[in-house]
Amino acid sequence: MIHFxxxxxxxxLSVGFCLVLLLLAIFQLFGEGVEVxxxxxxxxxxxxxxxxxxxxRIPDQMGSVLDRWQLGxxxxxxxxxxxxxxxxxxxxxxxxxxxxxxxxxxxxxxNLGSDFGGENxxxxxxxxxxxxxxALEEVGVDxxxxxxxxxxxxxxxxxSGRVLRNSDFESFRKVLERSGVVIYDPVPILVDRFDGRxxxxxxxxxxxxxxxxxxxxxxxxxxxxxxxxxxSRDPDFHYRSISQVVENVGDLASMIGLEQxxxxxxxxxxxxxxxxxxxxxxxxxxxSFCNIYSEVGMGWGEGAGFREHLSVGIGAKxxxxxxxxxxxxxxxxxLRENPGLLEGKKVVVWQxxxxxxxxxxxxxxxxxxGEAGGVVRFVEGECVVSGTVQQVPSRVGNSPYRHAVMxxxxxxxxxxxxxxxxxxxxxxLGVGIQDGRKTEMAGWKVGEEVELSLVxxxxxxxxxxxxxxxxxxxxxxxxxxxxxxxxx
Length: 488
What we know:
five-stranded parallel sheet
């Protein structure tokens, strides 16, 4: 059983610094890479690397040495912590062992890895969930909240049957259930099916679940939806399942420079038939737990994700809007941008990672009932504009996602080439993080003059809509209904 109560004691920071100085002396004497043995009381560097490579050997670069020594001492490195040979995402652990998320009050929580500025995040989880439920009720749609467990939750106690949770989770559950909100908790079915086999629930070097665990949860959830909402089966829904071996470097391993890949078997679902005019009765809102095995950009295959397997369990197509990271806010925002997705729905399943209860943005977000207004929309095609950078995202934070789309607010916008009418100010989207590195756009400064080619965001949303989003700080939601455009 993995314990987190003594994770990364602060005095170890000074110990680690002293060890780094010792390493410098060793380098000066020998100039060779240093092999590290398993540390006492912690998993140690070698315990981690032996899970991924045959022989643990620290490279000569000083940055890697510092990182590996810190990791072996239980000190977080690039948002990753190690415990007894396993890698964990730091915000997941902070959520589990930190203060109850219902009592965080005005804390900034800057270390929790949100894509929003800490002071501007709304932490009122209850109001956000109940507000969303009420907005859906107004259009005749029910809500199911699905809090997805983290690797730390499951591996901390799966073998003992006592899964670690944040101290406020049961209070959160009771309040929502008294208010009529249905909560689907995947933990019981995972404990039942994977009793004593914690390593089969989550990927070795990644923060996400295995294909087996995902499939078990999709089958369990589909049973709930069919029994409680009598979700209809499409008699013309036909598919075939294709087994595929997928090999990739996990997100956590990649964050700390471990490049050894791992292999999994995923079943891709290829839909061969749908009922003519069939309208899905289920909408899945989610994050990377939905996208993994489904979106090719995550590197774990495609067509084999949670949405596909939930569709198989129900026997009908499930509509899905999923965006990597920040499931508390991003998927609701994506729904607001595409309100037509609610047509014909009986129920919305809102899936988000458990850490979002502590680190997410929980502002109350109305469900749009029509076209956003206030800004002239480009008629079609591409044009070139110039403008002044007025606002950029305040922070990026450590993240397991290697790609991210960022928002930039431009003012003094002028048409350089093209025939379209352009607004004086607009929100521009573009790739801010690519393959784990900041792009030129991510380096834009407030006051800088830029010239760029734009197309309506709608034309690019299918390709980039599932990526993690770096948002503008917008506590008053003044940018909420502004049209988005894509910078080529």
